[in-house]
Amino acid sequence: MALNTNALITVDEYLITIGSYDAPTPAETSRYEQAINWVSKEAEVYLDRTLVSGSTATEIFDGLGQPHPELLHDRYAAENAPFITDPTPKLYVRSSSQTWSAVSQTTYTWKATDGEIYFTDSGYFIAGKNNYRLVYDYGYANTASIPADLKFAGAILVGNFFNLAEHQGKSTETLGSQTFSYNMNIPKVATDILDRYKR
Length: 199
Fold this sequence. Notes:
The protein is α+β, with helices and mostly antiparallel strands.
């Protein structure tokens, strides 16, 4: 077994998070990799997005023009983030003859981490129905570039994976005079972190 390219964390990062500094055996490493691969895939399903690069998106949206005298539609938040800036995000506008033309890249810029594109120098999206198209690549470059809080959520999910496997079918367990309860739900701290990355 090996880590998939969409892994949220590495085996070493998981072990450090749980406070284990002993080198795992090959069998343990394989077990950790299997769990990391599974939770990474499930996190992407939960978020309905790809986290590690390799994805290209095309979005068509309405320009709103100037819906209010003091408000210009000058920015657009894409459905995915962060942008990968090589190649750069490309913006197109549809003419009245229904042909697409590239918008000059000197008139707009972007915030890669937020997945937002915006006009500079008082430009704005001209009002129209489905008259803008944005094409961009998105995701983190690799596991190493995934933000720390997302890695922490991954570690929590891996721990939860092992907890579920160990206590499958049990809601409580008694050891001597003590009774332990098991919560079979995804820990709220993990979903709170993941929810920050929903678009």
